[in-house]
Amino acid sequence: MGETIAFVNILTVFVLAVVVGIEIITKVPPILHTPLMSGSNAISGITIIGAIVAVGSGQQTLTVVLGLIALVSATINVVGGFLVTHRMLSKFKKKD
Amino acid sequence: MDSATISNLAYLVAAVLFIVGLKGLTHPRSAVRGNLLGATGMLLAIVVTLLQQEILGFELIAGGVLLGSLIGAILALRIQMTAMPQLVGLFNGFGGAASALVAAAVLHQAVVALSSTAAPSLQFRVATAASGLIGAVTFFGSIVAFGKLQGLVGDRPLRYPGEQVVKLLLLLAALLCAALIVRNPQQISFYWYLVAAGSLLGVLLVIAIGGADMPIVIALLNSYSGLAAAATGFVLSNNILIIAGSLVGASGIILTRIMCKAMNRSLANVLFGGFGALVEDDQQDDVYAGKVTATSAEEVVMILKSARRVVFVPGYGMAVARAQTPVRLLSELMEQDGIEVEFGIHPVAGRMPGHMNVLLAEENISYDKLREMDQINPAFAQTDVTIVLGANDVVNPVARETSGNPIAGMPILDVDKSRTVVVIKRSLGAGFAGIANPLFAADNTLMLFGDGKKMMDELVAAYKEA
User: Fold this and answer.
1) How far is B137 from chain A (nearest CA, A)?
2) Hey, where are the domains in chain A?
């Protein structure tokens, strides 16, 4: 029973986040579609948390190794994604 | 408060930062701040995770983060703006790979620990399989997309008899492996079979898609990278992964829908349809024979000089020719003469959503001059000259027909409504849809044949002299 409740709770979070995502993204104008993609892509690098936990468990060698590869990939995604988005966005200027 | 409560509260703050950050991206003025808020949320989530008591081996983590940061920073800072589509594609891939690997690592750990603790929950098992499959499709799909955009793999779609059957069988095989993992997670080898099937599926899905459909593929892979992260969130029962992942998943799906609508095609048609067929030459002759008017840079400049309003319509050809700098120079020269200059941008112009806007913004062109299709279309009737640079299918009037051609019903830029249309193009060759474009043969159209950059340079030089 406890397992089911926990699942429903987590499902609630998932569905609400999807709804919020749709509401926000629909309002992004086409000129910002590329930065939106690279910026949201950087956010999807949140898996870095899971990778840190896997490496930090420090128990099974295979878990640590897989976690480490995941950590490097996720960090590339996060750091590269936010940086390149910043680089692009700083170009969007309005001249008078 | 125990450490788990503190970290969960911090994750909540991070989730709010992600949402507010994405909200910032709805306007160019607030977008830089929005991106920084997102990055702050990520930093907070990472620091809090590191501070959890059970985390060991900081050296290893620091090493991994350092290496990843270095690679990411070099890629992000050194890449040319014209190479942005492939970079975004590549980053998507890394996100997907990370999710699949984390799921694998956690699965391994859970199975080894199985003797001491209870069997993993159904949620854990299903989410692990989902993460492995979506992550693998995302990574290998993105690698192929990168290869295509970088010119390492052919731009044309690779099609072969029975390809849909092959993909369907692969999907079934992947689902079978997934079912076996859910039934018996101790058989870890099935996880790797699942990843292998997903990887092959990712390759085959994207390799069958041609260049002009890339905006849809990139948006879809963006969505998958988010969904993979959300699935990993279900594996770890971690809310921040689920929230961040589903935000991105939703964002990618919305973009995919916008792109599909802009092509008047369904997602299924893009993924499995037969676009990119060979051009029929005789049909081209009918359309063009004796009706095409070629022009010179000098003649175009004469027309521009007497214009009051000029619109540029850039397409992927501008990016390929790297002609955006002379475009900016010419637009500045004309503005100095009091000519109103705007840019009409089709939603699917280029190889990723918003591609043209990034290239023109890089040239320091004010963003309020970059007009969406719906904004600019009513204004073409009051436009003296429209310069079409490296765009083809998105300005093809046959799209207005209801059926009978591959782009029928696709929304287009109504450039033919302007007084004069100048099309800069190497030849009369067909665009991605493989059909002739009656615009090139229209009475008010002048063709300026040549390389986009060279012709734009000539226009700038001729304009200065005139």
Assistant:
1) 15
2) 2-89
